[in-house]
Design goal:
Layout: H1 21-31, H2 38-41, H3 60-66, H4 71-91, E1 95-98, E2 102-103, E3 109-110, E4 114-117, E5 122-126, H5 133-141, H6 143-149, E6 155-159
Parallel strand pairs: 5-6
Antiparallel strand pairs: 1-4, 2-3, 4-5
Protein name: Retrovirus-related Pol polyprotein from type-1 retrotransposable element R2
Organism: Caerostris extrusa
């Protein structure tokens, strides 16, 4: 059974127009967990250390999420995604607030990447590349009342892609 049978999970597989073929291949390798990290290439071998930071295992999750040597690149990637979502939302007539600080009565401050509202009672909280969707839903559920009080939305949707 090929990827054509999994339309939802593989709908992104259309090659973007401005992407080099080598970048496209890397994207597919990451999607299929076949990216050639040292941990993958040296299975059963000894030296899996990350040459950049000397972390014991060069795994894809380490490189994409927590390698200190790649932290700046990860932040830039995150910000590019946030900027893309913001510009597309503006094109669709949503009002956009980036990293809007929501200070709750309890004293807790939440800073989602994007707060989108349509002016008709709908609000969407977007947090890109966080650990787990359910954690983000719980974390930002408290913003429902806050956004209603601010007149920004009566309904709340949380968008938090997960790597799980």
């Amino acid at each position: 059974m090929g990827v054509q049978h999994f339309m939802v999970s593989n709908s992104w597989l259309k090659k973007p127009q401005n992407m080099k073929a080598s970048t496209w291949i890397r994207c597919l390798q990451i999607r299929t967990d076949t990216f050639p990290t040292r941990a993958a290439l040296l299975r059963g071998g000894r030296n899996w250390n990350v040459p950049l930071c000397r972390f014991p295992q060069e795994t894809l999750i380490h490189l994409l999420s927590c390698c200190p040597a790649l932290h700046g690149l990860i932040i830039r990637r995150h910000n590019r995604i946030v900027d893309l979502l913001a510009s597309k939302s503006i094109e669709m007539s949503w009002r956009v607030r980036k990293e809007f600080r929501c200070r709750l009565e309890s004293g807790v401050t939440r800073v989602p990447d994007l707060n989108l509202h349509d002016g008709r009672g709908r609000a969407i909280v977007v947090d890109v590349f966080e650990k787990a969707y359910e954690e983000k839903v719980r974390k930002y559920e408290v913003l429902r009342d806050y956004l209603q009080d601010e007149g920004l939305g009566e309904t709340l949707s949380v968008v938090a892609p997960s790597r799980k």
